[in-house]
Amino acid sequence: MRVPTLAFVLCLVANVSWTQELTVHGVVIDDSGAALPGAMVVLTRDGGNPRETTSDPTGNFAFANVGPGQYRVRVELTGFQPADLALVVGSTEPPPVPVRLKIGFDEEVTIAAQRSGDPLSPSGNADAVEFDPDALRRLPLDMQNLRMLIENFTAAGSAGGASFVIDGVETDAADVPQAAIHRLTINRNPYTAEYKTPGKARVEIETELGSRRFFHGVAALFVRNSALDSRNAFAVTTPDMSRLLSEASFGGPLPRPGWSFFTSGQALADNQAAVIRARTLAGLLTSNVATPERRSVLFGRVDFRPAKTHAVSARYDLFDDVERGHGVGGLRLAEQAFTTTERRQRLQLDDRRVVSATFANDLRVDAAHSNRHDGTPVAGQSIVVAGAFIGGASQTFTVNQSRSVQAADVANLTIGGHALRIGARTKVRWLDVVDGSNFGGTFSFASLGDFSRGRPALFSIRRGNPQVSFADIDADVFAETDFRPRDSIGITTGLRYDWQSRVADSNNVAPRVSMAFAPGGKTLVFRVGGGLYYRSVPETAVARSRLFGAGGLEETTIAAPPFPLSASAVAFHDASLNAWQLDPALRAPTTTQATIGAERVLWRRNSIAVEYLAMRTVGALRAHDINAPAPTTLIRPNPRRLNVNQIESTAESRTDAMTVTFRGRIRGFKGSIQYALARAIDNSSGPFDLPADNSNFAAEKGLADFDRRHRLSVAGTHGWGKDRVRLGTSFTMASAGPFDITTGSDDNHDLVANDRPAGVLRNSGKGSGLAQLDVRFTTVFRAPRPPSADPQSAKREQTDNLELNLDVFNALNAVNATTFVGVITSPLFGQPDGARPARSMQLSLRYRF
């Protein structure tokens, strides 16, 4: 956008020294002349540090103690085109500077709104963590996998797991190639009413788009081999491993004016191995089992800008993965392996247009299709020896296919200088589910001694129709606005309503509010916020209940069965059947979150934030056998049935956390440092988690599976020699997590072998701590680029564009255990049976043009 230059020409008087300090003031307005509060205004003097302020509720702004000289004034406000003005200050007070902002888009901008630099903005919270393409390129990533980086900075536990927002659409997975990510942000605008999940559990991703002026691209190759790895702590020999990842992206203008494109893709060939550490009758068994994987990820988008006030885009992504040898490792022996194939596709259409000076509209429509196969029809029986090994034929066979169509519309209005957002979304999903698991049958033994004597505790098996199809609909509407009662106070309020067809609960109204207060300036900001969040009932729970409906699956469990036992000899009749069902009173789990914190600007682009978070969830899902035998008589309420496992919304959880976040630079280091002191308590691990004792729910209250009292996360880079040599660091240190302690047998005769010793609560075991240091050493060179007619090509040709990287993962070679054996009768009790990889290295080469 071309902005008229504002020049203030002052009369010069000879022989006068210009030492007087003046005030620069102005007003920010829109096309209609209405004042725009909350706009970020930056005053920069040539060769000096910038000064920032925001426009007050009447749109006015001021900078005091301004000396004579040449300045630039930049004004930004979300939803408007930025204004950039030249300013000359002389010896007298300059007249007010009128800044008129036009609603619309930047020259190159993604469909998601850009983050405002206003410290009072709800999107300007200093404890948000943001990674741009440059930061992601410099950090150590195992085959460009962002999972560990995201886990280090999200607090997803009680909120129901991390969700991903890709180009404004909330999804459950982030399958976008790393090269296609323009910006990744965690905890931006924590209390916005637009999304279902809180900010600390939400990862927002904006994808790249092609330039309308020049072509640009990236080609990269990543290589790993076990010859460069240390031996896994649980392996006798270093597991064989070779990985090769090819990644490329290309974008630029299309022949017709206003059109551009961007494409990106990855191809992974992963020949790795899982480590088995189990105990059999022959003694300790340690071996490596090949688990090869082949994955392809494609991404492409086309953008069209017919006018400054209109943008249209189409986006397609594909995820295709085949993994053999899935399901082995730890206590699971090699014969438990099965193959998993997964294919996901999504098409998204976006239309964003400015209807008037005070009204802009975003319309998004997307269609998705996914297909996942785990295992094949079961042939054979499985053996589970508690805390020792799991062998025999794999009992996994599931097929999940889904098709969905989703439409969302968000209107952005400016009324009297206040921004108002109103939106609605609806999603229809069709699911086809096949669950032929455990059709061969599973013997459960309480110990190796019982196995050697051929005395199983339980035998369970299924038969019947393993297929079900159903449709699911969910929808939501929201409205939110922000206002400034004073120049030092910013308030955002919102209201959201969620509805889902799978539950009768229809009163899911979720108010949210956040406030920022900056007394005496903008270097110290206090924030407080709170809100309700309703989680969806997962389709897996609905599918389980429908699979066990009339004419569906039949399951039986036999206590102390003969061994061996032919599956054909098992009798299925009404008095010997288990069942799964949904509680008729099922409701959406509700999370209440509140935070209070303070942020301090230490120096330019450096800040520290301290925040306390309280999160409470009621109505979380768990399973409950409503037909469990009475503790004393062992008589079931309904003698004609066995277990009737009902999925109920009766679980609870609470999380209290204090976090300290630093963002900025320290002696050449640039990045984010976050420390969290937290405690998470709940009484269920998920919708299919049955209590150890159905008559004693109090024993289920304990530390959450994800609880770690202390966690330190660091992600940043350091450069030398004009940034031609760089060091990228990702470091995580955390205290021990819990694990559950069980007896390995069915002591209370409820046909589930998850009993605990008397007086032992859930997750009473204590594992080990975590220390993971990953580093990336980078050196850059200048390589030839393809010729370009773009006027900026000469500048780009002076930029180093060939990178050679060496990544070292787990540089400390720490033994970071992942799972522990909690069966007290096991010879491996209290010991880990799985761990993160030992120290390993990765070489990569990246070329950009």
SSE layout and pairings?
Blueprint: E1 22-29, E2 40-45, E3 51-54, E4 60-66, E5 69-76, E6 83-89, E7 97-100, E8 129-131, H1 133-138, H2 147-153, E9 163-166, E10 169-171, E11 181-186, E12 202-207, E13 216-225, E14 242-253, E15 259-271, E16 273-280, E17 283-290, E18 293-307, E19 310-326, E20 338-356, E21 359-375, E22 382-385, E23 389-392, E24 397-415, E25 418-435, E26 442-445, H3 448-452, E27 458-464, E28 467-486, E29 489-500, E30 509-517, E31 524-534, H4 539-547, E32 553-559, E33 579-582, E34 590-603, E35 606-625, E36 644-666, E37 669-682, E38 702-703, E39 710-720, E40 725-734, E41 738-739, E42 765-766, E43 770-781, H5 793-796, E44 802-809, E45 817-820, E46 832-835, E47 840-848
Parallel strand pairs: 1-7, 9-12, 22-26, 33-36
Antiparallel strand pairs: 1-4, 2-3, 2-5, 5-6, 8-11, 9-10, 11-12, 13-14, 13-47, 14-15, 15-18, 16-17, 18-19, 19-20, 20-21, 21-24, 22-23, 24-25, 25-28, 26-27, 27-32, 28-29, 29-30, 30-31, 31-34, 34-35, 35-36, 36-37, 37-38, 37-39, 39-40, 40-43, 41-42, 43-44, 44-47, 45-46
Main attributes of the structure:
single chain; 849 residues; mainly beta; 5-stranded mixed beta sheet; globular
What do the pLDDT scores average to? 87
Structural class: mainly beta
Query: Span between N and C termini?
Result: 26 Å
Report low-confidence residues grouped into runs of 5 or more. Answer: 1-19, 106-116
Radius of gyration: 30 Å
The share of residues in extended strands comes to: over 45%
Shape: globular
Number of helices: 5
Number of strands: 47
Largest sheet: 22 strands, antiparallel, barrel
